[in-house]
Design goal:
Blueprint (H helix, E strand, L loop, with lengths): L6 H8 L7 H31 L6 E4 L4 E7 L3 E7 L2 E6 L3 E5 L3 H4 L1
Length: 107
């Protein structure tokens, strides 16, 4: 008793094109690339450029939420003035944004 598909059709579907299996995998990889990988690479590139452009006098916000003014910059570290007579040394990679000048005075 054949309900929906005859045995001949079922066998034909099982022996279909071997590349038919790879096409959905390729489509999924392309979707992952454009939805996940490429935006992450752009974000990383923008952060690297931000770190490279860090200069004395910039007002920055760190990943930890510290707002300060850059007083010195080395290869891997920056010194921030966060209050009168209070300076801290941070890794440059923890800087999340350069904020507009005058933001510290307004805060």
């Amino acid at each position: 008793m054949d309900f929906l598909i005859s045995p001949a059709h079922a066998q034909g579907a099982a022996q279909s094109d071997p590349f038919g299996f790879f096409l959905p995998m390729i489509v999924i990889f392309v979707a992952f690339y454009f939805l996940l990988i490429r935006p992450q690479q752009k974000k990383q590139k923008a952060h690297t450029e931000l770190i490279g452009a860090l200069a004395t006098g910039d007002e920055v916000l760190t990943a930890g939420g510290i707002l300060g003014k850059v007083t010195a910059v080395t290869d891997h570290y920056a010194t921030l003035k966060i209050a009168d007579n209070v300076e801290i040394k941070i890794q440059k990679s923890t800087v999340s944004a350069i904020v507009p000048k005058g933001t510290i005075d307004a805060a």
